[in-house]
Every structure is written in structure tokens, then in C-alpha cells.
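Structural prep section.
Before we set up the soaks we want a predicted structure of the protein with adenosine-5'-triphosphate in place, mainly to decide which crystallisation condition to try first. Input record follows.
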Amino acid sequence: MNDMILDASGLSKTYFLKNETIGVLHGVDLKVKKGRFVVILGPSGSGKSTLLHLISGLDRPTQGTVVFDSVDITSHDDVRLSQIRNKKMGFVFQFHHLLSEFSCLENVALPALVNGVSPSSAYEKALDLLDRFDIGDKKNRLPDEISGGERQRVAIARAMVNDPLMIFADEPTGNLDEGNTNKLLEVFGGLKKEGRTIVLVTHSLEIAKVGTEVYRLKEGRLDAV
Ligand SMILES: Nc1ncnc2c1ncn2[C@@H]1O[C@H](COP(=O)(O)OP(=O)(O)OP(=O)(O)O)[C@@H](O)[C@H]1O
Ligand SMILES: [Mg+2]
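Run finished without errors. Recording the C-alpha cells verbatim:
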């Protein structure tokens, strides 16, 4: 059985601005097996978001390949990429990116509806997830009507609704206080226990403790810690 979910190799990323070329990643390799919780540590500006965007097909590398679920996604067009992302990947961003005009329940159900799941099943699944993360009672509120910590839990519920093969999290506790950070770490700890495959990037050593494998991104290269 092939339990390698992600195999990225030789990833480089250079941004080309008007008068400047900015080399951010210089030959990064990353393999992630099923059930692993990988944490990538690095200071601000080290390229964590850039790397996360490359391995999840949100952006394309200047060089290198990304094989996700046995498929080289670097060769896919944008339409195919967005289908793979919706079906097989879940995203939790630093700033939740919830849709402000939709309720929490609708936000969580939306990726399932886009995926062709019936409305009754999508809403049932969405409510189960909100309940699981202790925010079922907030289901009819708009994202602006709940706290930052609750919003991040809604974002995790949304990331989970299509049972993704992999969850990508970009500094998910970035703007939370200690209590909400701990609550979110409990949620990630629960996902780890149930064998979910996760890649999380952060600048925080404290958060990195939740991982089963920790790497450090420095000067465009990735090393095991
Ligand atoms: N679209 C872009 N065009 C030009 N440079 C960019 C672009 N996006 C990022 N960069 C540069 O690439 C470097 C890495 O950025 P990135 O956002 O990946 O860092 P990060 O580790 O996620 O930082 P943070 O912890 O602050 O979120 C930075 O120097 C940034 O200025
Ligand atoms: Mg970032």
C-alpha cells in the first residue's frame, strides 16, 4: 500500500518584481506519510506560507514537483487543481477566510455542497463538526458575531467537512490569546489522535510540540529538527 500522501521535491520559488527577484525557497524536499502531523517552524518571512501554497497547489513552484495522492499536481491546470483541493485538501488559514455573509453552518457546509453532497447530508455533517468543536450553539451566527477562537474552530470544521486526505494549517493560532490557542491545540491534538494527516506551519516552538515530525525552514531550505 502506498501511504505516501505528499512527495514534494526540489521546490524552488522565486518572486519576480519590477526591479527585484526574490528567491524564497531553494530546493525544498518534503515527504508526508498518512497519519503524520508535520510541523514546519520558521520566523516571519522565511517562506512558510509560500511553501504551504506550493504543496497545496494554491501557487506554482518556479522549479520542482509536487506529487499529492500519487498525482503530479504541478502539471494540472487551475480547474483541475481546484477540484483536487476541494475534494482532498482542507485549509485553515491564519485569518479564517470565512464568508462574512453566510452563517457558520453554511460556511462549513459549503465545500461539501460544492463537492456535490446533498444539502441534507452536507448540513448534517457540518452540524456534527460544529458540535464536535463545541460551537454547535453558534451555528446560525455570522462569522462577525462570534469570537476569534470560535471562528478558527469554524474554519477547522470547514476544512474537515469533505474528509480531506490532508489538512493544511497556516499559523492557525496566530491571532489568538493563550486560552483560545490551547483550545485550538486540543482540537488539533484530537485530529492527530484519529490519524488525520496534517501539515501545519508556525513560528511558535510551543505550537510545534503538537507535531509528530518537526522541520525548520531557514534560508530557503528545510531541515529536520
Ligand atoms: N507575491 C509575492 N511577491 C513578492 N514577494 C513575496 C510574495 N509573497 C511573499 N513574498 C516574500 O517572500 C518571503 C516569504 O514570504 P512568506 O509569506 O512565505 O513568509 P512566512 O514565513 O509565511 O511569513 P509570516 O510568518 O510573516 O507569515 C518574504 O520575504 C516575502 O516578502
Ligand atoms: Mg505566512
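Observations: Residues 34-61+76-224 form a domain with the Rossmann fold fold (CATH 3.40.50.300).
Flagged for discussion at group meeting.
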